[in-house]
Design a protein that fits this description.
- The protein has 609 residues and is mostly beta strands.
- The chain contains four helices and 45 strands.
- The protein is rod-shaped, with a radius of gyration of 45 Å.
């Protein structure tokens, strides 16, 4: 009985140490496998054969202890060591290492699996996958690049395929507006007028607002300035700056009123709330215009009209806004006519002169400290929109200087270049007071883009200048500057690179400098990771005792943070494993020797006669 038990016990010992050697061999074999977790074998004793349960002390008898013979050992558990492996650097930004207890969530044809191996790359569909093609899971983004946390999706990083533009919503300007000596307050406007125009159709010699057709306008009979079927282009100029040409197509119903509106739009004069014009602001009008009743007797502060283009006694009169930069400049030849209709004989483009005359004398020229800045912004499709801002000194008194600003853009879908105006107020120390921002609306109705809403920040503008005109070297010349400090828009760009932060958020970098969120990698945690079942290729699946996966963002609930451009190495301790292998081998030989000894005893028993 005892020898047979010894044989079985030793046989168990051989089996146990074979398991130990097998596990150690697997650990050593995977010492170079990224994300590998080593295993340990736990042994436990089996039931013992009880020869005596012992006895309790009685009288002079001290009692006896139990007498038991063990029946060997058995495998209690093979336990994974989920401790952190060493982190090694990588040259790929798509390689990831977890510093914590979480698992990557992967999806394949066989369903969802989990892994610690972060060797990832992009496949031909721009999806983040491991070496076996399993797709990394996480949160995606919507069309506005906001993370969508409702469901897990394949992480996608479309390098070279995704294009994005950034609409400008904020503009920051800086510079200095002249407030000291040498800077004049604007008190005079530019005034231009044509000779008297006639209706040469024979209906009435006088050109009438709103009724005279443009095709019937001329200086002399038989000399029509405009013809139906033509398109005229007008290149406006203000303060020496040229503007994009504007077009007007002439039809049989186009009136002189339409033409004047076209001119006013091209000059960017406010047609919604035009500035009132005072007599003292338009010197020279009495020399050529006799249609203003009692002009000579009016007080200097009397209102004689509004800024814009109007018809006075048959003459087209253009009155500009205050400021030298707002003064309209209309050269003698300022219109281009293009014949577009096949029914009209083609003679090519020709120049048309309305013979505008400047009514201001040199002594009464438009004045006022003026500063102009032109800057680009971008609409929702990334198309560049050019905006021009004029700042004109409007008033200065009691240590307060007021500038009026005008915003203009030829890229506005509205026919008028004018976008809006407002005031900038500076105190006696050159500091801004009152409102520091302006809101500018740009209509993009003639494009596929959205209308633009800009907030222009003036907070970096001051009233401190040195008065030096760097071009002329004249210290008495007014000198102010405005510059574009920053704007948050960008033209179209292509996704060129990406990075992944510790929270798993993927940020795409585009060629235009824009950075957009492309998704967020998620991690899984388990109540009992020892219950996971190995699925091959460094992956695990849920086991009956692991509990369900709990999806968390990296850095939360102990899941650990991510390190991009790094890999978690195997946590196999090769030195310790080799020592354990020696011990297991010794134990195996010991159990084999027991079997050999039992065999010798049995042989002796069989030799008895």
């Amino acid at each position: 009985m005892g020898l047979t038990t010894a044989l079985n016990t030793s046989l168990n010992g051989l089996s146990l140490n074979e398991t130990q050697i097998e596990v150690l061999g697997n650990n050593i074999a995977n010492a170079g496998t990224n994300g590998f977790k080593a295993s340990n074998v736990h042994f436990t004793t089996q039931l013992a054969r009880t020869l005596s349960v012992g006895s309790a002390p009685q009288g002079q008898n001290g009692g006896t202890n139990p007498r038991q013979v063990g029946l060997g050992a058995t495998t209690a558990a093979i336990v994974k060591d989920f401790s952190q492996g060493a982190i090694s650097g990588s040259t790929s930004p798509s390689d990831l290492a977890i510093e914590g207890s979480g698992f990557f969530v992967l999806e394949g044809n066989s369903g969802r699996v989990y892994s610690r191996n972060g060797n990832f790359g992009l496949n031909n569909a721009s999806k983040l996958v491991n070496d076996n093609g399993l797709r990394v899971q996480g949160y995606g983004v919507d069309d506005a690049f906001n993370v969508v946390t409702t469901q897990l999706v394949d992480i996608k990083i479309p390098l070279g395929k995704l294009n994005v533009a950034l609409e400008t919503t904020e503009v920051n300007l800086n510079g200095a507006l002249k407030t000291g000596s040498g800077a004049d307050v604007a008190t005079r406007r530019g005034v231009l007028a044509t000779p008297v125009l006639n209706d040469i159709s024979g209906a009435s010699p006088t050109v009438a607002v709103g009724t005279t057709l443009l095709k019937d306008v001329g200086f002399t009979a038989g000399n029509n300035l405009f013809r139906s079927g033509e398109t005229i282009k007008y290149a406006a100029s203000k303060g020496g700056a040229s503007y994009e040409p504007q077009s007007l197509k002439i039809t049989d119903t186009t009136t002189i009123d339409d033409y004047m509106t076209f001119m006013q739009n091209s000059l960017g004069i406010d047609d919604k709330d035009p500035e009132p014009v005072l007599k003292r602001e338009v010197p020279g009008m009495e020399n050529l215009i006799s249609g203003i009743s009692g002009f000579d007797t009016l007080a200097d502060d009397a209102q004689v009209g509004v800024a814009g283009v109007s018809l006075i006694n048959g003459q087209i009169v253009a009155i500009s806004n205050l400021g030298t930069s707002q003064a309209a400049d209309l050269p003698g030849v300022n219109l281009t006519q293009t014949e577009e209709f096949a029914t009209v004989p083609s003679s090519g483009d020709k120049q048309l002169s309305l013979d505008f005359k400047q009514l201001n004398t040199d002594e009464n020229a438009p004045n006022g400290e003026s500063v102009v800045v032109t800057f680009p912004v971008y609409d929702s499709l990334g198309e560049q929109v050019v905006v021009r801002m004029h700042a004109v000194m409007e008033a200065r008194e009691d240590a307060t200087t007021v500038y009026r600003y005008y915003f203009e853009s030829a890229d506005d879908s509205d026919p008028n270049l004018f976008l809006g105006s407002g005031k900038i107020t500076l105190d006696g120390e050159g500091h801004l007071t009152g409102s520091r921002t302006a809101t500018v609306e740009i209509n993009r109705g003639n494009t596929a883009a959205n209308d633009m809403h800009l907030t222009v920040d003036f907070s970096q503008i001051s009233g401190l200048t040195d008065g030096q005109d760097v071009s002329s070297g004249d210290p008495s010349a007014p000198r102010g500057t405005l510059n574009l400090l920053a704007q948050n828009g960008a033209p179209p760009g292509t996704l060129s690179s990406f990075n992944i932060n510790e929270q798993g958020v993927i940020s795409g970098v585009f060629t235009n400098g824009v950075i957009r969120t492309l998704g967020q990698i998620m991690l899984a945690q388990f109540p009992n990771p020892q219950g996971l079942v190995e699925n091959g290729s460094g992956t695990f699946i849920e086991g009956v005792s692991s509990g369900p996966a709990q999806l968390v963002t990296p850095g939360n609930q102990g899941s650990g943070s991510l390190r991009s451009g790094a890999i978690e190495l195997s946590n196999t301790d090769v030195g310790r494993s080799l020592v354990d292998l020696i011990v297991a081998s010794t134990n195996y030989r010991g159990n084999a020797r027991v079997i050999s000894s039992v065999q010798q005893l049995v042989d002796e028993l069989l030799q008895l006669r």
